[in-house]
Amino acid sequence: MFWMVALVAVDGRQYVYRVYAPRKALPADLFWAAYHCHEEDGRPRASDWFDAAEIRWVGGSEELARQS
Q1: How many CA atoms lie within 13 Å of 33's alpha carbon, on the beta-carbon side?
Q2: pTM surpassing 0.85?
């Protein structure tokens, strides 16, 4: 169970990061975790606009089983 956070960079590409955090994590915390990871990788500068990021929850198989 984790979050996928997509950031747009100045090179026009979208970089996606897996952020392990609880389901109740705040979107801003998820954004900054991905942003700092991106900056450490040395890739082209990512947009620091929170609204430009896409944040999605990816549940584990046990969560999918509970929803059925």
Answers
A1: 16
A2: no
